[in-house]
Amino acid sequence: MRMTGTKLLHVMYKGNAQAIVDVMGGQITMMFDQVSTSAGHVRGGKLRALAVTTLERSPLFPEVPTLDESGLKGYEDVTWNGIVAPAAVPREIVSKLNGEIRKIMANPEFVKRYAERGIEMKASASPEEFTAYIRSEADGFANWSRTRG
User: Fold this and answer.
1) In this predicted model, what pLDDT tens digit does every residue of 130-146 receive, in sequence order?
2) In this structure, how many other beta carbons lie within 10 angstroms of the beta carbon of residue 54?
3) Which of 99, 100, 101 is nearest to 82 (CA)?
């Protein structure tokens, strides 16, 4: 993002690596990035964290406010990843895969290793819950983009 007067201009990047370099070099004013990729630069004093986009503060940077706390009430943007399979995969295989993933993600050492990198791990309770979440996210983005017309 680059400041133009009192407005922000969205600058497109193919990934965050060059955007981080450009923020540190002053070519752009700010960016939205994951804690996991910016934490080292923040700790090293090369970037300053202004806010997090979750509704709760990051355990890695408890001193950094949320955008909600900073006045943008209700704002939440969470990076998420998921494991998906073709629709034709039998239900019992999907359920077994979900159960194994949940076991792995219940391992405290696994969770700790990711948390140290700024990645909070959470498994969906069921494939149906994850499907509902994906649909909710897609609907939210579709509604947002319609309002930006």
Assistant:
1) 999 999 988 887 776 66
2) 17
3) 101
